[in-house]
Amino acid sequence: MKIAIASDHAGFDMKLLAINIIKDLGFEIIDLGPTTNNSVDYPDYGKLVAKGVSNGAYDKGILICGTGLGMSYVANKYESVLAALCTNEFMAKMARAHNNANILVLGARVLGDDLATSIINVFFNTPFSNEERHNRRLNKILDLKKN
Ligand code: RB5
């Protein structure tokens, strides 16, 4: 699985943590920046991951800013992207099992490193249930982006 990751300055340190977790899980990780914790605008980095997930270049993505809110706004603009801001393990599990999220969004100023680590592990170890009712509901959302 190819996973792309990006952050802004607020999420920079947590991005480094997430990269190591993904490597430990045995997945390929592509770091789309930034390369320092100098102040940047989160849309400039969020769009790199979201566009790549949308066009199939990456299987999944991780986006990290201060709260996770700005990165969520950006990512969910893109067709076929279902980006989920998760603040606990239950949300991470449901984001995959029911919502088939393909981008995990984290708030570095909201989560400690231990909780972020658990959330990342749960998210990338939980498959989509693929139940008809969930597919039906998600397709309704994905259709909204086409109009
Ligand atoms: C940056 O200060 C902060 O606004 C950003 O990281 C994020 O929290 C936006 O949603």
How would the blueprint of this fold be written?
Elements: E1 2-7, H1 12-24, E2 28-31, H2 42-54, E3 60-65, H3 69-75, E4 83-85, H4 89-97, E5 103-107, H5 113-125, H6 132-144
Parallel strand pairs: 1-2, 1-3, 3-5, 4-5
Bound molecules: D-ribose.
D-ribose binds at residues 8, 10, 42, 65-67, 69-70.
CATH architecture name: 3-Layer(aba) Sandwich
The strands making up the biggest β-sheet line up spatially as 2-1-3-5-4
The CATH C-level name is Alpha Beta
Care to count the β-strands?
5
N- and C-termini, Cα separation? 30 Å
Unique bound compounds: D-ribose
Q: How is the quaternary structure best described?
A: single chain
How many domains, in number, for the residues? 1
3D structure, described in words:
The protein is of the alpha/beta class and 147 residues long. It has a single domain (2-146), classed as 3-Layer(aba) Sandwich (Ribose 5-phosphate Isomerase B, Chain: A), CATH 3.40.1400. 46% of the residues lie in helices and 16% in strands. The chain has 6 helices and 5 strands. The radius of gyration is 14 Å and the shape is globular. The model has no long low-confidence stretch (mean pLDDT 98). D-ribose is lined by residues 8, 10, 42, 65-67, 69-70.
Which key features would you list for this structure?
binds D-ribose; Ribose 5-phosphate Isomerase B, Chain: A; 147 residues; five-stranded parallel sheet; alpha/beta; 6 helices
